[in-house]
Amino acid sequence: GAGVSQTPSNKVTEKGKYVELRCDPISGHTALYWYRQSLGQGPEFLIYFQGTGAADDSGLPNDRFFAVRPEGSVSTLKIQRTERGDSAVYLCASSLYASDYNEQFFGPGTRLTVL
Amino acid sequence: SQQGEEDPQALSIQEGENATMNCSYKTSINNLQWYRQNSGRGLVHLILIRSNEREKHSGRLRVTLDTSKKSSSLLITASRAADTASYFCATNAGNNRKLIWGLGTSLAVNP
Questions:
Q1: Is the per-residue pLDDT at B107 higher than 80?
Q2: Pairing of strands A110-114, A10-13
Q3: Alpha-carbon torsion (B35, A94, A96, A59), positive or negative
Q4: How far is B78 from chain A (nearest CA, A)?
Q5: E strands present in B67-111
Q6: How confident is the model at residue B2, as a pLDDT?
Q7: What is the pLDDT of residue B4?
Q8: CA separation (Å) from A98 to A31, A42, A101, B6?
Q9: What is the distance between the alpha carbons of residues A61 and A15, in angstroms, rounded to a whole number?
Q10: pLDDT at residue A40, as a whole number
Q11: CA-based, 20 to 30 A from B41: which of A107, B55, B82, B84?
């Protein structure tokens, strides 16, 4: 079956603009996670959803970042007033349930470049 | 925030040799997972070891966990050029479902 997909694969924007990044999880997976990864670093947790609700948003760096998952499937990560420091690869993952022992399946990521 | 620290940061070996990577972490954990990342396939889950387990095998992979030292090792035996990738450890703890990641080890397997 299809894996996790993310669109766009690349996004170049100018400082101060608004961007939306989309994640389509594996069908039937109830948990969805957002991470971001800078060059040479490991992924950094941003937020995760169990169903439609954000179960843990402690990793969002500030209030310019927001994510939604209105129907418990597709999720959108929204970044307002982008800054150059937001440049990174944004990774989405899904798992059957949000538990300690469920493998997370990752999408290919969206590379965001803020000029 | 980073939880784990992998060492070495970079490792270069010949095909057929074994590769060992280590991961240390700071807090008590529920489990520790190893992932591989390369440009072609993104992040792929390799193996999960629970906090009450000490060793686990999967194919050519062997993972150990020492909770007293807060460390884990990943051994890849009989390495292949296709094993060239970055390897990350990730942990979760308490009621958290999020994964906290290390900085990764970059492995190059030379044919």
A1: yes
A2: parallel
A3: positive
A4: 26
A5: 71-76, 85-92, 100-101, 105-110
A6: 47
A7: 64
A8: 5, 21, 8, 25
A9: 17
A10: 85
A11: B55
